Amino acid sequence: MKRIFIALKVETGETLLTMIYSLKSGLSKDIIKWVNPDNIHITLSFLGDTEERKIKSISSMLNEKCKGSGKFELIIKGSRVFRNLSDPRIIWTGIEPSEKLMNLYEIIMNGLKELDIKLEDRPFKPHLTIGRIKHLNDKEALKALIEQFQYSEIQIIPVNEVILYESILLQSGPVYKPLEKFNLE
Length: 185
Hints:
Structural class: alpha+beta
CATH architecture: Alpha-Beta Complex
Number of helices: 4
CATH superfamily: Cyclic phosphodiesterase
Strand content: 35-45%
Distance between the termini: 30 Å
CATH class: Alpha Beta
Number of strands: 9
CATH topology: Cyclic Phosphodiesterase, Chain: A
Strand order of the largest sheet: 2-6-5-4-7
């Protein structure tokens, strides 16, 4: 069994790193589990603990479905929180709506359904998780920082491949190990 997910890797550019460091320094007195910039990605589907034989089937499906779907670009824009500013849990940055991303997502979800893989029952909201809030002392500071970046276009990211990752949970934080990469050309 491996804990797996399907995602798009995001290389963190200078503007995204600047935003992350501004958030970290502005919220340094709070208890927030910040995502390592090397681990930032867009999750397409979290599959959790999965048997090896199913991983092979998923891998074959991804190879078939991704090939030829075409590379594209996404725009990272804004900053927000999940739940809400009264009860914030996750700090994230958004992805501008993209028909190509939604088409890729649907193709992969349909492929998983064909394999009888149980899927999460929530709408797809493409985003990059920046930090998980454990304890927040100053909601006003968070609100000010979120508003500072709320409408900023942060980075354009090329999407050339889909990656099947294994998530290895360690005390120091998760390690995301690519199991296989699927080219979109």
